[in-house]
Write a structure and sequence with these properties.
Helix content: 25-40%
Radius of gyration: 20 Å
Largest sheet: 6 strands, mixed
CATH class: Alpha Beta
Distance between the termini: 39 Å
Bound molecules: iron/sulfur cluster
Strand content: 15-25%
Number of domains: 1
Amino acid sequence: MKVRCPDGSEVSADECIECSKCYPKPIIKMLLAGRNRKRKKRAKPRYGVTRLVGGCLRKTYYDLTEEVVFPLEKMWIFNRGTAIHEFVQKDMPKEDIEIFMEKSFSTFGVIGFVDAIHAGAMYEFKTTANIPDTPQEAHTLQAQAYYSMLPEDKQARVKEILIIYFSMSKIRVYKVVPRNVLPMLEAKGTILTNAIKLGVAPRMEESYICRYCDHKDICHGQKPATYDPNKVDEEPIPEPKNIPKPVEVKPKSSGLNPFFK
Ligand code: SF4
């Protein structure tokens, strides 16, 4: 991972920690904790759930194949979110929080951490500057994906899925319908795996996300992509014609959360 210093120079995470001119070393270390970890090589790719539900697979493709330089100041936004998560989770039993889950498909795997499953509710926590009037689609799909990936016995214990937004001054709770979105994860993961294998970006999915996208120049052909998949000597994975719609599962509880909006 590369870091952009406030003076505009670009360095590796290790070089940034070593330099520590912008902020004292403990602050830099806190900002970059875990960011200089090397990725393991795996027999088949694994994607975090957020990679597949983010609204533009082409952006995910570039996130995975192009080098992204993170402004050092942006790292505070990530870490502040983590700190709020830990604060909110602190009174829940350890076994109820940060639950790792993995789902294997034929050519790739999907992994994720559920923020908490506690007393019959699955929780997804989001920190944000402005709380949206309705839950963002990507957040809803993310929570539904975690629900879909749960083993049956654990799924049966989830009576409701709650997305909770935290801004600096407000908290708002939304209830989400439990749905099986595994077919959608499989379809999107297959498209992404094929694209990476072939070095051909998936189609554009233009939306408000484009405004914040780090890859606009490459996406619009104003800057060349650097990724080279070398020679592909395996058969490409067949791409599904249509991305299936998520299958709705009846909520197991009709009781509304008192905070539900
Ligand atoms: S600019 Fe828009 S369409 Fe292009 S990769 Fe980014 S989010 Fe996707």
